[in-house]
Amino acid sequence: MQSERARRTFALLITTLSSFLTPFMASSINLAVPALGRELGASPVEGTWVVSVYLIAAAAFLVPFGRLADLLGRKRVFLAGCSLYALASVLCALARSTRWLIALRSLQGVGGALLFGTAVAILTSVYPREERGRVLGVNTAAVYTGLSLGPVLGGWMTDQLGWRSLFWANAALGATILVLALATLRGEWAGAAGERFDWVGALLYTAALLALMYGVSSLQGGRAAPYLALGGFLGLLAFGALEWRREQPVLDLRRFRGNIPFIFSNLAALIHYCATFALTYLLSRYLQEIHGIAAREAGLILLVQPALMAVLSPFAGWLSERIEPRVLSSLGMGLMAVGLFLLSFFGAMTTIGSVLWVQVLLGVGYALFSSPNTNAVMSSVAPRDYGLASSTLATMRLIGQASSMAIVLLILSIELARAGPGAALAGPLLETMHSGFRLFTALAIVGMFASLARGRVRGAADARPGSRL
Description:
The chain is mainly α. Helix content is 80%, strand content 0%.
């Protein structure tokens, strides 16, 4: 029989591996877009969809799956996520057309949603409050390690083994996590067992978010896109009104009413990921298309930022237990605003040294934001709501990431249309970078103030009934 220490160690190991898995895929696929585009005949816009559709699917299903995890057990949902993610990765590796790859990437996103909504919730269920900052820092470091190794290994694998090898590697790691979880993970952690699942609310939420994100991403290319976006927005408003009246909603908005740290920490996360996620995609295309650097070398250059995140995140998590998270997160967001502003001036003559120095600034800022912000979210709710809080935070992250790519997709579509058929990609790509990074700078400044507005976390959490284990 497992000791409590062993139980916690296995939970940390398994959730850390799963937190490494998806960002590794996200950062490595960015390097592979030019190669898969050449093999499958994908246009620049279709290549962007290969990245974006995963995020849209994952965001749309996260909240319902987080609620299911609270009802059925977080381990059960986590295992389902490992299985589906590994299977979808195998199918992606076998895809023979861009359309099939995009469709299968959406299936992979559904598997990712099952993982995202449970990993942090399992950690906060297993570890006591006083240790959460440290283990969440380790978990965040795993995310950034995946982001770090993705460009390096992804670039090398794409050059040496082909872009399909990325999906085979993800399938193997997903299967490994599944076997480890089946063998060692003990407990279900169903914080809301016995309650009913709100199928109407879940379906309305998923359909509305899919319509909104797809509509925004397609504004330049289809007549129906504005109506889809508007319908999705109105659907989300209807979802909020419906859930407010439900006795057992899929997203209990009333539970977070008046919880200022929770609300503004999630808002800060949404803005943060919207402002920063497209960075790796844009820099990867910039290095390969503008500077003519191979995927492997581009991956090495892009290593700096996520490597700093991985090294500094555990320290930032530890620091957030001694300094108010809003101070650290706001400082991190401010540093990122400066870095994004500098990127808006990059051109064909910009040196690789400049790319590296800006990545240092962004890496420090990213680390100072993420671990303290996650600690603030999870420390601001009662134990029964860990699954819901975890999936809400992950949803903010994914909506932010999908929005970031939607912004890039929209600007790139406009610039390609302006350049005309047959035009080289270099000009539209640089214009997309300049416009995109200026907008992302403004978002980061707004996010800094949202982070400051959350107020004190520790005092508020200690005073909230049921907030301690």
